[in-house]
């Protein structure tokens, strides 16, 4: 949910900045949404690299090399997030992010089923861990919409 809040907040901030300073590219909500996705994926990717232990528990025990997979996903999120910013790579980056989101979905299911605490140290309340599953398709749709 924090990721969605970030997407919405950054998009709105960019849009309002575009209106306030009359910046045409920032007055197109689809471009703002794409830039917001880039910012959020880069930020979450950096978090994967800085604190992989805060995420590796989500796959530890059922996938080998949990820490290395978290680090790899962080690098991919950063690279693909940056790729959203360039016209020549935005479609490829979007497809990469959508695939990555699908590949990460089982980890979120595992957290919900095992009643583990969600990333970020939030309490392992069943309503929260299960509700997080509904947001993954929203992120996929966001990425698809903002580059089409």
UniProtKB/TrEMBL annotation:
Signal peptide: none
Keywords: Membrane, Transmembrane, Transmembrane helix
Transmembrane segments: 6-26, 33-50, 62-85, 92-112, 127-147
Superkingdom classification of source: Bacteria
Name of protein: DoxX family protein
Organism from which the protein derives: Chitinophaga tropicalis
């Amino acid at each position: 949910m924090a990721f969605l809040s970030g997407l919405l907040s950054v998009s709105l901030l960019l849009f309002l900045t575009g209106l306030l300073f009359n910046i045409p590219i920032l007055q197109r909500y689809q471009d703002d949404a794409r830039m917001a996705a880039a910012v959020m994926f880069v930020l979450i990717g950096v978090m994967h690299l800085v604190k992989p232990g805060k995420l590796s528990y989500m796959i530890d025990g059922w996938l080998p090399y949990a820490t290395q997979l978290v680090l790899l996903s962080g690098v991919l999120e950063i690279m693909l997030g940056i790729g959203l910013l360039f016209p020549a790579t935005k479609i490829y980056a979007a497809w990469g992010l959508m695939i990555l989101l699908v590949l990460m979905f089982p980890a979120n299911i595992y957290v919900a089923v095992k009643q583990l605490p969600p990333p970020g140290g939030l309490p392992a309340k069943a309503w929260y861990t299960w509700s997080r599953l509904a947001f993954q398709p929203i992120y996929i749709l966001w990425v698809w919409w903002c580059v089409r």
